[in-house]
Structure formats: structure tokens, C-alpha cells
Amino acid sequence: xxxxxxxxxxxxxxxxxxxxxxxxxxxxxxxxxxxxxxxxxxxxxxxxxxxxxxxxxxxxxxxxxxxxxxxxxxxxxxxxxxxxxxxxxxxxxxxxxxxxxxxxxxxxxxxxxxxxxxxxxxxxxxxxxxxxxxxxxxxxxxxxxxxxxxxxxxxxxxxxxxxxxxxxxxxxxxxxxxxxxxxxxxxxxxxxxxxxxxxxxxxxxxxxxxxxxxxxxxxxxxxxxxxxxxxxxxxxxxxxxxxxxxxxxxxxxxxxxxxxxxxxxxxxxxxxxxxxxxxxxxxxxxxxxxxxxxxxxxxxxxxxxxxxxxxxxxxxxxxxxxxxxxxxxxxxxxxxxxxxxxxxxxxxxxxxxxxxxxxxxxxxxxxxxxxxxxxxxxxxxxxxxxxxxxxxxxxxxxxxxxxxxxxxxxxxxxxxxxxxxxxxxxxxxxxxxxxxxxxxxxxxxxxxxxxxxxxxxxxxxxxxxxxxxxxxxxxxxxxxxxxxxxxxxxxxxxxxxxxxxxxxxxxxxxxxxxxxxxxxxxxxxxxxxxxxxxxxxxxxxxxxxxxxxxxxxxxxxxxxxxxxxxxxxxxxxxxxx
Length: 577
Description:
Mean pLDDT: 88
Strand order of the largest sheet: 15-14-13-12-7-6-4-5-2-1-17
Structural class: alpha/beta
Helix content: 40-55%
Largest sheet: 11 strands, mixed
CATH superfamily of the largest domain: Alpha/Beta hydrolase fold, catalytic domain
CATH class of the largest domain: Alpha Beta
Number of helices: 18
Shape: globular
Radius of gyration: 26 Å
């Protein structure tokens, strides 16, 4: 289309509908069709059971239609009252047009009322709790998808944008949609603004060891002296390590170096199908255990301070338990960031994990290979669909805008694969069976695993709004160890709760010193709220296990472990298929 020729609205909408339909079909082939089937079955079951309580059902329906009538009368100007308002934090209807225009106000309120009614039916249903939780999640997915804000013809902001740009916003949106279809995922940030090693993961260091599954990076010290006890950081293998070293202003790695730590970090391989047979215990032996052995040989230290995040924390804890079973004690302290150990209540992720769904996944991966990282990313995004899916659909495709650069969202879209063998083991033994917290139930690397024999001091950091590892669930790990435990609760969610550098302008807070041993509710009730970042509190805790100061090393690695390449290394730059 030439620049001088105005876009034909009819052609644009037809093309937009065609491409959107293709995208929906592609998504349905993976997850949406199965979820829709389960949603329909669950609602049919719920409705059938509710019909055995006709009074409850009739009262609910009558109340719903009375409220719908009130909204309709309000649109006609016969009632000035608002029946229902968006929940606090719901930004979908923040534009004044949703309030000022009677038609859009009616659509907004009707949608919100229907959403409220559907959620209430699930909450008051006579289903068992497990079925109710699954139906609640699937209902929310359906409700979020059906919002009038998600459709061009029923979103006044989209219509206004199209009129003001003479249709160019629709053209740009169609172009954005087609580009994302080629890429296979929704663009959440301006990806052209970032490059790993250029303006992300820029802390100076070198890869000093590597094997099939990981590269081990040692960072150049930033202080004249360093702590005698080195630090090893184990990130989750379903994400790239540089979330801990985004940019200098929010790099946990740089912060640790500034405190005089001698810092090493694991950069996991982005596995392809050739590594599909790599198992959970391979990751343990070739990951944290191998890294600790190499670090001790390089530094001469007897012990290390271990820091691990999310699934990396589950693995690091397993590794410590394996080493203790083998009468090895090379870990001075263990820091677990938003880490699940007891999987009895995994939160909303549990709706994706039951025997039927895991069995289907096992069948799909029976010949090995990898679990595509993009599928895992889609699953996590569905936990917060309005924020991580639909807001970008509206902004990118309906309004034709390009999202601004945001380092955390760039990292979030830089997904990694999981080996089939390890992934199925993790689902079965952690989420389904919850075997890790059962003493001697699991054998890893030739040793029986008993978390009760882990006696090093442990620092738990959880986040109060975490939707991936709910803090009330991570808290259950505090009574699994025999050593001293410190629990800290940060504001915000799974990522922002951890990446929270000290700043005079920070509006965050964290909680400490709650009473352990009597459940999460009691802990929070007795905890002390502290303004600012949790990082300084952690720094002070780590000082106990830092050892004496010694001159900072003048080289990275040693005679046996030479610099292979500059940080951040090559593994982190490999893209998931």
C-alpha cells in the first residue's frame, strides 16, 4: 500500500480478522482447545449439581437479571447509579470514554456484572475444592478473553485511535500481529533496544569452565579485598541467568561484587533435542555440584555461599542434600529466592498439573527431545492473562503501538527449553507426588535425599504477590531443615520482588522477624515491615558466613581453569527453537 493512498477500513478489518483467526487456530492446536473442552465440561458438571439446589440457582439468576436491568435503565438515562465498577488495579477501562459514552458504559458494566456472576457461581458451587480451583482458573481465562476491551469494535480507545490516525493504527497493528505470528510469541517490549553483552549482562567477567549443561562464569572483583568464602549463584534453568545481571542499576551480581563477594554464576545451556535424555540428577551433578567443586579448586576455599532462585533453588537444595548424604559439607549458607520445596499447594500452576495432563505430556515427550520454552512462557503468562497477554494484544494489534523498552520483559521473552527427561521427572516427583519433602523417598546421584539433614543456615526470600511460587507455599519449606532458618517476605511479585535494588526513591518494603513454626498467617501477623529493599538485610545476614577478607584475585580462573571466553558467554545467547 502506497503512502499516498488511504487505507481501506473494510480491507483492514477483513485482513485483521483473517490473521487473528489464524493465530487463534495455532494457539488452539496447542493448549486452548483442551482448556476450552475442560472448561465446558466443568461448567456442565457445576450447572447439573446446582440444579439440585433450585432455590439457590433461581435467586442467583433473578438477582443477575435485576442488575442487568438496572444497567440498561442507566444507559437510557433513567438511573444515575453505577451497578458495578472495575476492581482496584484493573486498567482495562481507565479511559474516560468507558464512563462518558452510555453505550460503552453499558458494555463495560454488563461485562463486569457477568464476570462477577460467573465467579460467584464457581465460588458457591458444590464441587470439591480441587475441581473448584480448576474451574475458577478456567473461568477467569474465559472472562479475561471475552472482555469488550479486547475487540476493536467494542473498545472506544481503539476506535478513537483509528479515527485520529485515519486507519493507520489498524494497518500498524496488523503488521505487528503478522510479525508476532512469524515469531511465535507476543512482543512485550521493544526488543531492538537490547543486546545481551552490550546493554544487558554487562558485568565484567569470564567463563572459566563449561560442560554440556552449563557454563560457569567468574566475575572480576570490584573491591580491593574479597570475602574468603566465594558465592555461587544458581538461576532457574527455564530462564536465562541475566535476570540477576540486567543492567548496572538493578544487577544483583554487581551489588554482591560491591559488597566484596567473589561471585560465580551458572549459565545454563539452552538444550536441543540431542540433550533431551539429560535427567534431573544430571543437572544436579553437572550443575551446582560440579560448579562448587570447580570454585573450591580455583579459590582454595573450603566452603561456598550458595544462592539459588525458583526451580534453581529446588535443585540447589537437592544438591546440598545429596552432598550431605555423601558426608560432604561444602556449603556455608544457602539462600533460596522464591523457591518451592513443599509442593502440596503449588498455587494456580496446579491447574496445569494433574495425572491426566502430566500423562498427556509424557506421551508427547516419550521419544525424548525438549519441552519448548515458549510453551512454558505461555503457561506462566496465562496466570496473569490481562497483564501479560491481553494488554499487549490491545496495545500492539488493535492500537498499532510498539511497546516501550523494558529490560525485565525482554528477559521474560527470552525463553529456554527444558529436556524432556528432566521436565517429566520434575512434574511427577515434585508437583504430583511431592516426594522431595519425604525423607529418603527420592534417590539422586546415588544418594537418598533427606532435607532434614541439611544443617547449614538458610535464608528464604519470598514475594507477597508471587503467582508462580506463592509465598504461603514457599514458607512451608522453612520447617524442612535442621539448621537455622531466616524468612524474609518482599513486596511485589516473582521477579520484581527479587530484583529490588536499594534506592532512595524506592516505595517498596519487606517483612522480617515473624514467628516461625506456626504457619504463614502467624508469621505475617507477627512480622515487622521495613521500608526499602531487602538486599541490605540479606547482606548483613551473609556477613556471618563470609569468612575473613583477603586480597582480590588478580586473574579469573587459575592454571587449571583458564578463561574460555568473556562473560556473559555463549550459552546465554542461544535462542530457543
